[in-house]
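User: These chains co-purify. Model them together.
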Amino acid sequence: MSDRVDRRSFLKIAGTSLGIGALYSVAPLLGADGEAGEVARTLWKRNGEKPKPFSFVQLSDTHVGFSGPPDPLGTRAFERAVEMINGLPHRPDLVLVTGDLTHDSEKPGEHAARMRQFKEIAGRIEVGAVHLIPGEHDAGLDGGALFRDAFGPTSHAFDHRGVHFIGLDNVSRAKPEVGPEQLAWLKKDLARFPTSAPIVVFTHRPLFDLKPEWEWFTSDGDDVMNALAPYENVTVLYGHIHRHHEHAAGNARHYAARSLIFAFPDPATTDDKKPLPFDKDQPFKNLGLRIVGEPKARGLAPIRPTINEVELTMREFSGTVGANQFLREGAY
Amino acid sequence: MRTGHAWRRAVALGVALTTVALTLASQVPARAQGTPRVVEITAKRFEFTPKEIILKQGETVTLRLTTEDVTHGFFMKALGIDAVIEPGQPTEITITPQTSGSFTTICDHFCGEGHGNMHMKIIVE
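Assistant: Joint model of the two components:
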């Protein structure tokens, strides 16, 4: 991928990880001409939304209903993340939640109650819209029936200020796959756009073979990425692995968000897929959110996302990390 | 003449023994190729039994998979294994592993809370 702004590209996406999710900023290159300008004008005409800078947040793996040794605090990190979002000086337009909103339960009524609890907490988020896709703990046992009852379709697409967002379901077929029907829908959906259109895919499992032995893959992820291959500005946001991870392949950049319940270890360091132990002095260590925001530079800045990490801390459990969130420049 | 008879008898005996030997030799590989060793593996939430099997590199084996409760998956990409195990319906897959090593094989059909750690090892020596 080129580090220079392609004249046909008209949006830049930059990201900041807050450790409990992610905040993204998207900035249209308003002076873009040619195809880029045409894309902007078309989207504006179609949606009545002028492309302009905006930000959005990614949250993931809240696992409402889980409470155990890896995180005895239950929903506290999720609730703290909501507070952080509402306290951001520049309110994001959107929040995307990339699955495992709830922890599964087979007790009658309990899983539905957990969905309602998620809805109550997420309902406190003061942004324009919250978009959800399921994780296997939400939809793996019933094919997504409960999720659809509570939240609507398990996959959907929408446009927001010149960016096309695609929520993909790679969990409700029980196996880690998107499936042929959804793949056909994706191809049809993408066909409306020129290859310069900025696309954000949000899904639960990684769409590449990150660690198949830990079920960190999607069996037909290659088919999804082949469908996206012609597009020049593709960002894939996912969860499932409960840790930050970045991966680049072709034109696409893949970012995993941290969870809001407990962290998994780095698979390069162990074969044992066990949650990292809870640290009572730093209860939100390794948890977080991601913010994608406006890039700092215009013009010839890289079009690939820039990520800044922010640790999540909690006032009453601030420990040694500190009482306040802090920003740290990331790798990009 | 005696010498000639003895020689003919020796040749006849040799031919007979060779025929028997060849027949036996041809039967042994025919059995091995036709009926690979069968390894039984049972799945139940959230474990496989046995937790480890040992195969030989280049050996063709049939894995006979059954479940004691719900539907499970059986997946190990490097060995070309991607199966579904349905209740009441044994699944058989035949493999000939070509690479030695330890292969973590997982249930990739979500089966409940402990699904994420349902796995076993296939050791290929």
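DSSP finds one helix and nine strands in chain B.
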